């Protein structure tokens, strides 16, 4: 298993756009379920976490096409670090609006485009 870095995961969570649809510490959107560590619905096991993330994949792909204008790309290490962040209640308490890059904050404020089903 890779070394996991929750502090780096915190940055990735904002920068890669997870926060557009998922809140942590009440920061972020509510299109997907909250990923607070206290939310018992979050997979506690990395492979299960990735599998459940996959279920939101259609919306993520839509977000990158419609709103982000760049591809959301992950290395295995990125996923591991995001997983660590999602498990880490202490680091999550330090997640605030100040962690959001401007272009991500804009998408949250304007509301992301939702795929039409
Ligand atoms: C454009 C919106 C969007 C983005 C961006 C997004 N997700 Fe999701 N995600 C969803 C939706 C919607 C679901 C619920 C899918 C379902 O259950 O049908 C979901 C589900 C999940 C789940 C399962 C949660 C549970 O309780 O079962 C995890 C974990 C998850 N996403 C992680 C992430 C991570 C990590 C990122 C960033 C890399 C991310 N998501 C980015 C929309 C998004």
TrEMBL record:
State the Pfam families in the record: Cytochrom_C (PF00034)
Q: Which GO terms describe its molecular function?
A: electron transfer activity; heme binding; metal ion binding
Keywords attached to this Swiss-Prot or TrEMBL record, sorted alphabetically, are: Heme, Iron, Metal-binding
Kindly indicate whether the keyword Methyltransferase belongs to this entry: no
Asked if the record carries the keyword Iron, the reply is yes
In what residue span(s) does the Cytochrome c domain sit? Answer: 4-90
Which InterPro entries does the record match to this protein? Cyt_c-like_dom, Cyt_c-like_dom_sf
What Gene3D superfamilies does the record tag this protein with? Cytochrome c-like domain
Q: State the protein's name.
A: C-type cytochrome
